[in-house]
Write a structure and sequence with these properties.
The protein is an alpha+beta fold. It is about 30% helix and about 15% strand.
Length: about 110
């Protein structure tokens, strides 16, 4: 599964609707398949988008998950490394859940 992508970041409602498919008592899609969160160099270069995509990834990821880049061809000389990727957020305790309308949390 390639997780929620840019359409999920288009608006708070779109993001919430997408996360509802991943955040459930049984772990949703992430509980049954590996997850890959990829975006373009332009997306990861934007600090706001990098933070949103990393937060989404941390909310819904399962035991087997990767975050990084999709295919950008041979035109890219350097790939940005968002600061969030240097953080150790620890091992999650349970699955993500919607704790209020459009608000998701994972411990």
């Amino acid at each position: 599964d390639d997780g929620p992508h840019s359409e999920a970041a288009a608006s708070p409602d779109a993001c919430a609707n997408t996360l509802r498919t991943y955040c459930s008592d049984d772990g949703g899609l992430a509980a049954t398949r590996a997850t890959l969160e990829t975006h373009s160099v332009d997306d990861w270069s934007d600090a706001t988008l990098a933070e949103r995509y990393t937060a989404q990834f941390l909310l819904y990821r399962g035991d087997y998950a990767w975050i990084g880049y999709d295919w950008n061809g041979c035109r890219v000389g350097a790939y940005p490394y968002p600061s969030q990727w240097r953080e150790d957020f620890g091992t999650p305790d349970g699955w993500c859940a919607e704790v209020a309308d459009g608000v998701f949390q994972r411990n």
